[in-house]
Amino acid sequence: MQHNMVLEAQTIVSKNFEDTKIKELFNNVYDDALVNTIKILDDDSVFVLTGDIPAMWLRDSACQIRPYLPFINKYADIKELVFKLIKKQFYYISIDPYANAFNEAPNSNRWDEDLPQQKPIVWERKFELDSHCFPILLSYQYWKITDDNSVFSGEYWKTIDLILDIWEIEQKHESKSEYYFYRPETDYLSNKGKGSKTEDTEMIWSGFRPSDDPCEYHFNIPGNLFALRCLTILKEIISHNNMDSSLLLKIERLYQSIKQGINSFGIAVLPNGEKIFAYEVDGLGNQLLMDDSNMPSLLSIPLLSDLDENNEIYLNTRSFILSKSNPYFFEGSKASGVGSPHTPDNHIWPLSIAVEGLTTSDRDFKLNQIKKIASNDNDTLQVHESFHKDDASQYTREWFSWGNSMFCELVLDYCGLQI
């Protein structure tokens, strides 16, 4: 039996679209996360599978339920589900703030035999800055929509304090951090798991990208812009709720230093004189000019930072990303868009197609992006991880819940339900 929220969303979409394929795809995947990925555990906590991998990613789980946020005030059980997910995310972070994905129980399941050995509850221990940021953003979105500040419990603030401590340590990764990651013969960090050489920039070091691929240079600019947004969020939460928080000084110190680091190291100048954001830098003069389809990306800056879609450097960066200057921009007979070194060459991610639509106010363009995704599902009624620019039958991952959710978010955004 379909949830009334699902029926309401499907009715809204039906009224806003004439294209049968768009409606069929939305109807098939909107409840995907609700029905196929969310699990209520014996302790009444919420666990969200990433899809075809039996683990919960902090990033993915937040994004998978984003299309349900516009309805949480109307449906008490969905509101409770989001509340419990936030609590679960912060609980996981408190156990291991360097991990990106977790098991539903301490069963020692894992992707590989990584070093150092991880805790039994941890599926994978790749430090990705966004793994902290997405739960903070979700807690903020929940509060802004519901006005329920009970989500900001004592345990919440203890975990925030832990996150801020890690961010301060990773600002000085070379001298202060004990983190390393080694996976034999595959995607481990260089330099015995410590990563490539960096110089302090006051930005936060990250071992891996949102794609779970290792960083080439370890200061990821979209990740640090996202961290700035989260620090702004934390200041607003503390101020609005009249909290006497000793964290404010730490938050402000981090904010100012990271912002200065981005301005000093994260902006590149193209031969034509235009300024754009680099994707990664190392503080030693090296800058990686590209973008990856996974969020946070440079393309997603208006969604996940304090900068809006009209920011001049963002507009320059967007033009660069959506051109052949970006080595992961692919243009073919079926579609054009951003791919990733995480997937085969010439494969475009529907996720990035959705982000391209979500970061503009142009409704006609949004509709074009929706059609682009719907017409490249290879008649599976699933939004895949990626597909070949000339042949949608060549795709990766039969089931990718985050991709489904991002398509639904774009469709609802087109219908006027912005998140």
UniProtKB/TrEMBL annotation:
Gene3D superfamilies: 1.50.10.10. The keyword Hydrolase applies. Keywords: Hydrolase. It holds the Pfam family Glyco_hydro_125. It comes from Fundicoccus culcitae. GO terms for molecular function: hydrolase activity. InterPro entries: 6-hairpin_glycosidase_sf, 6hp_glycosidase-like_sf, GH125. SMART domains: DUF1237. The keyword Hydrolase applies. This is Glycoside hydrolase family 125 protein.
